Amino acid sequence: MKFSLFAMFALLLAPAITTMDAQAHGPTRQKVTVTKEIAAPPAEVWAKIGNFQDMSWHPAVHSSTGEGDNAIDATRVLTLGEAGGPTISEILYKFSDEKMSYSYRITDVNVEVLPVTNYSSHLTVKPGADGGSLVEWRGAFYRGYPNNDPPEHLNDEAAVKAVTGVYEAGLNALHASFTGN
Amino acid sequence: MRFTPVLQATDLLVATLLFCFPASSVALAGTYAFVTNQNSSDVSVLDLESQTEIRRIPVPGKPAGVAVSPVHGSFYTVSPDSKTVHRFSLKTCEEIAHALLPGGPTGITVAHGLGKVFVSDWYNARVFVLDATTLSHVADLATGSAPAGVVVSPNEGWFASADRDADQVSIFDLPSMDLRHRVTVGTRPFGIAIGPDERLHVANVGTHDISVVDPDTGTVVATVPVGKRPYGVGFAQGLAFSTDQYADTVTVYSLESLSPLNEIDVGEYPEGIEATPDGSLVVSTNWFSNTVSLINPATQTVVGEIETGDGPRAFGRFLYSAPEGLEPCRDR
To answer: Does B3 contact A at CB distance below 8 Å?
Structure first.
């Protein structure tokens, strides 16, 4: 499990094919929503994933360092796979224990690691069936290639596929952690 | 470079009626929204009175930009993925013409009387000027980098573009199309609108504020702080309403004091916004939620919600108040 996830992220840190303006973006914003039923009360699930400074529940994340706890504008740097692996820098822009939801965006990532730009995301725990939880992870982003006529590995489809993979891997692991698998 | 206008039919009934009966004297049957759904590649036609979707029109190529022109009996959409501008009949909602453009066509606006359509080219720092009837290419205007939102003044004396990566607005005289001003605004201006104060209200995505620009002097007269990542601005009852993408709010600010008054919770990722011509309702589209929120500007509360296709953007002027007896999409 862990190995294949790292491979998914890695796509190896090939040199960026061109210098890109981090602000520019493609013409069509993409969205991904992945949900998962978890057989545990929302409060228990939120206790596990509702800390912006702790992504240890995601199998692709090796470590997380950050500042500001769960305050607005708190930051974190996720290291993927292993010590010295590729990193993703993120900032928190909404957080609510009451709504069991937080929202963050990526401030820095190499598009060869995650082929997206202008990425924002919400992670929310809602009441599910039979006293369980429904965890919802949503992302909005543009493709990795900001200019016209993108190469295949940086087009809209590649961006959606990569983000969907990250969300599914995280929620599948979360599901497994509550069922003891 | 390839420009491919295709004229399929003419549709002048609505235009003729509106020329003969100015808007103020025409009994309005209702107001409709033409919402471009970028992710599902279609347009939702919404009846704001009954709060229902009356028609879903397939539009290939991920449409975002939209402009309604009652004078030309048309609404126009821009699909950046297929690089195509489409012109549809308001009466039948059938396509009348389309044009393939080079580069990255994005925003669109209409000079109704001049018979011109302006389309920003996101990738090539220019605006295409097209004939509003045939969509044939007339001219190019040189803007700053990444032009997005575009507007024509109500008297058609000038045109402006928000040049996102140049942090500026370009203003051109009409009908001469001569450059009048380049105005530095906030960071990454995207949406742009003209208020009843005849000033430009420019939504700066990067600095989370609205630059209010005097188009005559080419100066910023005020900067209004709003919610995170503002996208569009609408106007009603002496107030302005900005959609704040990251805050999931609409910020209300006073056109008199140019200071914020209130924030209204709407759906996720609010984008295109416009008030009905009588100012009784403000319609904001929620890109992530696949809905529009209907806001009563007097009470500053959400009074209704209508479902749309996937990824509604409505980037432009997307509302249409129909003369009585001329409901859109019905005459087929």
So the answer is: no
Residue among B80, B104, B228 minimizing CB distance to A93: B228
Give the tens place of pLDDT for each residue, B53-112.
999 999 999 999 999 999 999 999 999 999 999 999 999 999 999 999 999 999 999 999
A120 touches chain B (CB under 8 A): yes
Does the beta carbon of B206 lie under 8 angstroms from any beta carbon of chain A? yes
A45: helix, strand or coil: helix
What whole-number distance in Å separates Cα of residue A105 and Cα of residue A21?
Answer: 17
Separation in Å, CA of A14 to nearest CA in chain B:
26
Q: Which site among B78, B82, B84, B122 would you substitute to test the A interface, given the most A Cβ atoms closer than 10 Å to its Cβ? A: B122
Q: How do residues B269-298 score in pLDDT, each as one tens digit?
A: 999 999 999 999 999 999 999 999 999 999
Of the partner residues B80, B104, B288, the one whose CB lies closest to the CB of residue A138: B288
Cβ contact A31–B39 (<8 Å): yes
Among B123, B188, B228, whose Cβ lies nearest the Cβ of A147?
B123
Q: Are B39 and B32 in contact (CB under 8 A)?
A: no
For the complex shown, is ipTM > 0.85?
Answer: no
Residue A75: CB atoms within 10 Å? 16
CB–CB contact B246 A147 (8 Å): no
Q: What's at B39, amino acid-wise?
A: N
* Domain definitions of chain B by residue range: 4-323
Q: Where are the domains of chain A?
A: 27-179
CATH number for domain B4-323, candidates 3.40.50.2300, 3.30.360.10, 2.130.10.10, 3.40.50.10260: 2.130.10.10
Amino acid of residue A138:
R
The answer to whether B80 faces chain A, any CB pair under 8 Å, is: yes
What residues of A are in contact with residue B64 (Cβ under 8 Å)? 27-28
B106 closest CB neighbour out of A23, A27, A138: A27
pTM of the complete model beyond 0.95: no
The CATH number for A27-179, chosen from 3.40.50.970, 3.30.530.20, 3.40.640.10, 3.40.30.10, is 3.30.530.20
- Following CA atoms B191, B192, B197, B198 in sequence, which dihedral angle do they give, to the nearest 10 degrees? -170
CA distance B235 to B256: 12
Asked whether A45 and A173 are in contact (CB, 8 A), the reply is: no
DSSP secondary structure code for residue A15 in this structure: P
